[in-house]
Amino acid sequence: PMPIHISLFDYFTGTVKAFSFGILIMTICCYKGMTTTGGAAGVGKATTSSVVISYVCILLLNFFLTMVLNIFRDTIMRWL
Asked: Which domain holds residue 61?
């Protein structure tokens, strides 16, 4: 049974955020990997920069997704 304090909205937002973060990380890392030059040293630098960029972008995306999803919470709850 589902605990009382967890709503369908919580599951929905968790799923939306996880999917969004996955797409974001995939896009950044694929771009950095495909544009890498400089051999093994270049791969190391590209890996480090893709991790840093992904981390910052996840923080920003999480902030905006939380704002948008909470603004439209009532509308989303009617759909669920």
From this structure: 38-74
The distance of Cα 78 from the centroid of its chain, to the nearest Å, equals: 25
Q: Which tens digit of pLDDT belongs to each residue from 17-57?
A: 999 999 999 999 999 999 999 999 999 999 999 999 999 99
Q: Is 69 within the bounds of a domain?
A: yes
Does 22 reside within a domain? no
In a domain? residue 28:
no
Burial 14-26 (b: 16+ CB within 10 A, else e): eeebeeebeebbe
Q: In this structure, are residues 20 and 59 in contact, taking their beta carbons and an 8 Å threshold? A: no
Let me know if residue 5 belongs to a domain: no
